[in-house]
């Protein structure tokens, strides 16, 4: 995997954690933090990390599947070029959808899938067992999210099972520091700063999408 892809993944993961993910998933993280508030410090740290590592595990499994699918459809230079070009188109659409946060984003983040996951999330949120925190984290990783779709498109475009998993692992691990400090960040960062981060992340995502369009075009040329 190219260093450019790794650095792009980390930069976008951190940027969108501050501007998008913390708003979408911050409530789930804060709810789990409240559940842990009555436990001792060591237990809080272990269960909190377990929650987020389970979330990352869900991303990695999705990355494996999308990377595997990407590798399965690459049979020739033409198919590879089309795949890269298609991934570029998807990334550009996602960039505008996440940046504008309008009907396009609502369409991207299919709420029907949320309706399937949320009842399970509510059920395990009532439990106080160690396993429940791991399950909650895993379910959090399955929630429909435009940012996750972006990195899945990268995993698909990588055309590799291993690279797909690595991309999603880097993405998930890069979001952990921000999501752990969700309650503090939500109360500290100004809306103006979050919008600025969102703009920078949008430009990086848009630029990477255009770059993939170019690569796909050069392969097809």
Automatic annotation (TrEMBL):
<feature type="domain" description="Urease accessory protein UreH-like transmembrane">
    <location>
        <begin position="17"/>
        <end position="211"/>
    </location>
</feature>
<dbReference type="Pfam" id="PF13386">
    <property type="entry name" value="DsbD_2"/>
</dbReference>
<feature type="transmembrane region" description="Helical">
    <location>
        <begin position="164"/>
        <end position="187"/>
    </location>
</feature>
<keyword id="KW-0472">Membrane</keyword>
<protein>
    <submittedName>
        <fullName>Sulfite exporter TauE/SafE family protein</fullName>
    </submittedName>
</protein>
<keyword id="KW-0812">Transmembrane</keyword>
<keyword id="KW-1133">Transmembrane helix</keyword>
<feature type="transmembrane region" description="Helical">
    <location>
        <begin position="133"/>
        <end position="152"/>
    </location>
</feature>
<feature type="transmembrane region" description="Helical">
    <location>
        <begin position="199"/>
        <end position="220"/>
    </location>
</feature>
<feature type="transmembrane region" description="Helical">
    <location>
        <begin position="81"/>
        <end position="99"/>
    </location>
</feature>
<feature type="transmembrane region" description="Helical">
    <location>
        <begin position="6"/>
        <end position="36"/>
    </location>
</feature>
<dbReference type="InterPro" id="IPR039447">
    <property type="entry name" value="UreH-like_TM_dom"/>
</dbReference>
<feature type="transmembrane region" description="Helical">
    <location>
        <begin position="56"/>
        <end position="75"/>
    </location>
</feature>
């Amino acid at each position: 995997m190219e260093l450019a892809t790794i650095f792009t993944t980390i930069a976008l993961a951190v940027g969108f954690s501050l501007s998008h993910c913390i708003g979408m998933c911050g409530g789930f993280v804060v709810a789990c933090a409240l559940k842990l508030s009555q436990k001792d410090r060591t237990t809080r740290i272990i269960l909190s990390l377990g929650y987020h590592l389970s979330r990352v595990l869900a991303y990695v499994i999705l990355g494996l599947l999308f990377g595997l699918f990407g590798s399965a459809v690459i049979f020739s230079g033409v198919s590879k070029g089309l795949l890269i070009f298609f991934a570029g188109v998807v990334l550009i659409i996602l960039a505008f959808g996440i940046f504008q946060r309008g009907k396009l984003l609502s369409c991207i983040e299919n709420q029907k899938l949320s309706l399937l996951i949320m009842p399970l999330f509510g059920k395990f949120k009532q439990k106080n067992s160690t396993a429940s925190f791991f399950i909650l984290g895993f379910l959090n990783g399955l929630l429909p999210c435009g940012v996750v779709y972006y990195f899945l498109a990268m995993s698909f475009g990588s055309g590799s099972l291993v690279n797909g998993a690595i991309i999603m692992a880097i993405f998930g691990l890069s979001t952990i520091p921000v999501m752990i400090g969700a309650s503090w960040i939500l109360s500290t960062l100004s809306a103006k700063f979050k919008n600025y981060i969102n703009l920078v992340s949008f430009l990086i995502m848009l630029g990477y999408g255009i770059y993939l369009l170019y690569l796909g075009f050069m392969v097809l040329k």
